[in-house]
Amino acid sequence: MMNLEDHLLADSLTPEAEYACPLCLRRGPPFMFAATHEDDRFEHDYVCSTCLRDAERAEIAAAEADADAEADWSAVKVERNRRINEALWAVSPGSPLTQECQAAFAAMIGELHRVTIDFYTPADVVWPIIPELAFEAPPGEG
Predict the structure, then answer these.
(1) Which residues pair with residue 27 across a beta bridge?
(2) Which helix (H) or strand (E) holds 79?
(3) Do residues 77 and 116 lie in contact, with contact meaning Cβ atoms separated by under 8 Å?
(4) Which domain of life is it from (predicted)?
(5) How many whole angstroms separate alpha carbon 29 and alpha carbon 46?
């Protein structure tokens, strides 16, 4: 990125002795400022090097936060899949559970599938409660 002084000289303009940053109002010579007319992050033609550095740091922090959030969601997905796999026996054909209990497990599995949709952040996730087991009476009993 070109500094303001070089940009002005390239356009055959004479730089002023001192400029003020339009963001933080710091004053200084033109070499302290970056020409930002082609940078979408800024709506001004130039900003001071401190504001430019702050914008770069903010972008890096946002990217790191996105990466952390993605890692957190990955951990939630692993736990969700583990819980689903542990519950599938209850809704499989030949399950010894009552119809009501199988329906409760099916509802819980449905809730687990929606964990990444129903909660805004991984920290908000509340895991569904595993239903009480209720077994069918063996044939010939009851």
Answers:
(1) 20
(2) helix 49-87
(3) yes
(4) Bacteria
(5) 12
